[in-house]
């Protein structure tokens, strides 16, 4: 009788399995960076990682699952980079810029693959969409980062904005990422300049929201946001 | 010797050619609405329009060319609908809402095809992109509409905003169209509500820009916009 791990096409259990999974993922992410998404095949990944095709499919049933892993990897890296920067800044503008720059820094190695990714992710019901059920885990890591950006800011963000600003900053990040996909400038300099330009404007608008005359418009805008999400 | 129009695969000249071209286009647009983009083939279009496949390709060398025609058709319809509404309103908020609603009205028949279209259009260098060289003609019709929205508003839009607001309203329309693609509510009610919510907020913000303290932030934001376009 065979042990489970000795059956053809089945992967080994325990730490060996973790190691294999991690190797397959590393090879896939490198291939996404170097060959692009369309040219990365499961067959190529399995061969490079030195595992059988069946074994590769066992860990990642489709390229879509690898993209989910990529999203999780990029978001974890964004959080790691941003957290270091957030410890150095109390003012809202540099805190916002830190989180946005960290998003660009952590995905820049995948820039050439960005346009293929966005074209796939923007389809309604795409599991790669940042709004999908499948993306819940990385989305919540990313949104938690923006809650930290807002909660730690001094002077404090006005109470009426404190709850909604993290979501707005995350949505703005998605907009910046669309701009970044189209950005062909050296070192993505135009995206960097956009971030450095927009972050202080957002902070100024948050400051203006303390004025009663502006406050009314802000309340109207938040009302529209809540109804749009409902 | 053959006349040009008698050669195999070549279309007839003059008004007959116009008529054929128009028939092929009508069939294609109907197929986009009813079968969707992916399932619309040139072979199917040619057969439905009663022309040879070579003849269909003569008028529209690819499905991409048909999408360009669709874009032009939708924008012309948007301009027609909006112009009627603009004659009735002087205030900025209903003028903005009129142009945005007209964008939704004119493309609503193609809603099921919207997600396929946006996924194609968002690729960098896609000829279907609203930013592409190929889309220059419909883009300029659409942007001219927003210049009319702004120029005819009373009270007048402050001079510092008059030049840039049309572009911002057009960019906002692209954002509304992304929301619309995902909108599965009956009659696209959520998109309608979003438009009716956002238009008065934009008008209020334009009014607030008359205050010196707000004016500074607006100038900063327009500076970022100009640098981002450069």
How would you portray this structure in words?
The structure is a homodimer of 230-residue chains. Chain A is an all-alpha fold. Chain A has helices at 15-35, 42-49, 53-59, 63-86, 92-107, 111-121, 136-151, 159-162, 165-182, 189-208, 212-229. The radius of gyration of chain A is 21 Å and the shape is elongated. The A-B interface holds A 115-116, 118-120, 122-124, 131, 178-179, 181-182, 190, 193-194, 197-198, 200-201, 204-205, 208, 211, 213-214, 216-217, 220-221, 223-224, 227-228 and B 115-116, 118-120, 122-124, 131, 178-179, 181-182, 190, 193-194, 197-198, 200-201, 204-205, 208, 211, 213-214, 216-217, 220-221, 223-224, 227-228.
Provide a brief overview of the structure.
The structure is a homodimer of 230-residue chains. The first copy, chain A, is built from 11 helices and no strands. Chain A is mainly alpha-helical.
Question: Could you give the topology of this structure?
Answer:
The structure is a homodimer of 230-residue chains.
Chain A: H1 15-35, H2 42-49, H3 53-59, H4 63-86, H5 92-107, H6 111-121, H7 136-151, H8 159-162, H9 165-182, H10 189-208, H11 212-229
Helix pairs in contact in A: 1-2, 2-3, 4-5, 4-7, 5-7, 5-9, 5-10, 6-9, 7-9
Rounded to the nearest angstrom, the radius of gyration of chain A is 21 Å
How many strands appear in the DSSP assignment of chain A?
0
The shape of chain A, in one word, is elongated
Total of DSSP H or I helical runs spanning 4+ residues of chain A: 11
Main sheet makeup of chain A: none
Uncertain runs of chain A are 1-9
